[in-house]
Amino acid sequence: MEEKAPGVVKLFGEHAVVHGSRGLSAAVSVFATAKIEPNNGNELVIRLSNLDGMSASLSKEMLDDIYKEYASRESILAYKKRLAMFDANLLPYITIAARLQSEFMASLIGYDISISSEIPRQKGLASSAACSTAFTKVILHNAGIALPDEAVIDIARDGDRVVHENDNAGRVDVPPAYYGGIVKVTKEDFVPLKIKSELRLMLIDTGPKKPTSETVGNVTNLFKTNKEYAQSLCDQIDECVGLGIDALMNNDAKAIGRYMYKDQELLKELGVSSESIDDAVDISRETGMLGAKLSGGGGGGIVVAVPGEKISNEFYNRINERNYKIINTSIHYNSQHKRKQVQYG
After folding, report:
1. CB-based burial of residue 115 (10 Å sphere; 0-12 exposed, 13-18 middle, 19+ buried)?
2. Tens digit of each residue's pLDDT (9 = 90 or more) over 293-314
3. Fewer CB within 10 Å, N or C, the chain?
4. What are phi and psi of 61, to 5 degrees?
5. DSSP state, 120?
């Protein structure tokens, strides 16, 4: 048995969402996969296929003890230090498994769960959120446990909480990885939107990115030194979100692209862009792409672009000169969650 979960791009609003703006995230057609099968043993084996098969074997008692540590943690960082015997790449999944066994009586012993992903890691495509979501779903499906969507999302967020050492992590990325489609996010909640745009997307991998904590710090510093200006930028980003929702409802790719370019200018002013991102956005604009902007934490990594009907040879030539990589994709919709797409804006 296996379950998949898509990667995620931020169409509008990242960073500003922390300061009262709306954000708009979209699932895209690159996937993480979790596969579960019996191993005829007396332990749970978790294996990371993309990391040379790195694995951990855990007994029921070990999982119970790990859950107690997690449930009583002073902080995520303190929890990770106490469980430093486990590789940091495995601990997010170990944490999810421990919670599912202890809180929901999921049967895990005697199973082998492997996680693989075609989503580039640490690029702004929410690879960790997709992997945690697929992992959570496959355990629940195999155990025949049906939980409310919000509960599944919270459990999957444990993976991102551990990865990013932040109890608020995963709120922007896990919902679209779970629901598919387009999700509106605010500081307080998330809502899957009843929009089914046929928008084509092109992801431009510009290379290594800075840690998200660094770009978040840039925004925090701007608020400390010039709060009025920083809030004005966030308010303008929120306007882009609203206009972007309208454009998506109308399937108006030109308008979507126009607001993406505007959003990128504002994100650059917030201090979360980079030379490589600025370069890829400039190439996109100068060669006829309808829109382009950074996705996620910024500071490098992925630029999400909207192509027109035709893509010029000049675009490809200039992208290749920089050794950037291209992924052609589209918004991914999970048909089983159409019932949850309840509003437009």
Report:
1. buried
2. 999 888 989 999 999 989 999 9
3. N
4. -65, -40
5. P
Q: Where are the chain's structural domains?
A: 2-192, 200-330
CA 164 to chain centre: 12
* CA distances in angstroms from 42 to 45, 60, 192, 248, 273, listed in the order given: 10, 9, 40, 50, 49
Statement: 2-192 belongs to CATH 3.90.1150.10: no
**Class at the top of the CATH hierarchy for domain 200-330:** alpha beta
pLDDT at 274 (0 to 100): 94
- Which runs of E-coded beta strand occur in 59-199? 111-117, 182-185, 190-192
Helix, strand, or coil here: 14?
coil
- Determine the angle formed by the axes of helices 127-143 and 149-164, rounding to 10 degrees: 140
What's the rounded Cα separation, in Å, for the pair 126 and 54? 21
Residues in a beta bridge with 12? 24
Other Cβ atoms less than 10 A from the Cβ of 255: the count is 17
pLDDT confidence tier of residue 264, bands split at 50, 70 and 90: very high
Collapsed DSSP state (helix, strand, coil) of residue 321: helix
pTM of the full predicted structure? 0.89
- Strand 325-330's sheet: what is its strand order? 291-294, 300-306, 200-209, 325-330
Nearest to 114 by CA among 62, 44, 64: 44
DSSP code, position 123: S
What does the chain come to in residues? Answer: 345
